[in-house]
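User:
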Amino acid sequence: MRYLSWTLLADLAIGLLFLGLGAIAMGEEITIRAGHFPNITHAQGVIGQANGWFEKALGKDTKIEWKIFNAGPSAIEALFAGELDLTYIGPNPAINGYVKSKGEALRIVAGAVSGGAGLVIRADSGINTVKDFDGKKIASPQLGNTQDVALRGWLKDNGYEVKEKGGTVQVIPLANPDQLTLFLKKEIDGAWTVEPWVSRLILEGGGKLFLDEREIWPDRKFVTTHLIVSTKFLKEHPELVKKWIAAHVELTDWINKNPEEGKKIFNEEIKRETGKALPQNVLVESLKRIDITYDPISSSLFKSARWAYEQGFLGRAQPDLSNIYDLTLLNEVLKEKGLQPVKLEVSKQEDKK
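Assistant: Predicted structure:
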């Protein structure tokens, strides 16, 4: 009996030790480094940071360290450097990051925004139809960014070549504020850009919307922003990523159901991050061209990748993007909420053209 007693006591002590270690482990605080741009097309990131939406969803043992980026390449560089776990970002920086890392660095886990981009022309530019672009100067936000690729792809699909390839249309990559300045000075004829700059060129620059980018996509839907996660973080913390995605889906629904409150929170946060809120008319106009959604609209990404490849942004070999998406956790969340799952659409073999 004495032998059994000591055995039981030893087992109990070991059990208590493991319980104690488990409690310590459970109490460890995990930091998520999350990113977004101070932009209307990053609405979930901006509003989620402002009202602590994700902190509440992830719980007290998870800390979120927000990082603000002004361009996709800098966000991808931070992810490559191990300084970023997840971020809201446009499709082409995500494609570039995936290709440069040979498919290892990141996964797209949810959509965020569709729409919100377009081609604005000066009212006196002489552009009335698609046949009027010979000799014109059209700006884009950054060489190789999502709108730059869309502009070049659209020009090519309409029979134009850009000047650096011997064509007649000059595409000028310019930061969005510089676009507005040169637009007003009549030094560019138009700009293919993203909200709120589409609306600012129209309302402040006296421009005309020549093409709402939604017009060139099936069902007027195309990915402008989605949520990406580093593969390392996804493998190490799938439960946290799932919680983030669940909060993202709930926040998306809340924004769509509470547009006025959402606008107020968004603009207050933009003022905090940039020092200046958006004019109310610009904010209202911008939102008319944006759909806030968790659907990644994957088919549009593959077409954008084809455009980027044809323009020489993705190297000599056609990239294999077959694993760029991991929608497993998103669809688990949607199923648990009684919502329809989203489908991965590699339609028309766009990624293989």
